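Sample entry as discussed:
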Amino acid sequence: MLNQIVELFKERIPSGLEEAGLDLKQNLRALVAESLSNMDLVSREEFDIQSSVLARTRAKLEALEKTVSELEAQ
């Protein structure tokens, strides 16, 4: 994602400014990386792990609710 953002900026630099573009690319990369690190973002892997944990927890809750309903019916 970071590389895509930097490349978008780099593509919009007029030709003939490649040297400035390289410097700009480094500065933009650092700026974007710093901005992203200040946000409360999680990686796709962490998101998938938490989604899996949530699905298992939801299944356990449904099983417990069923058990409670059966016990209350007695």
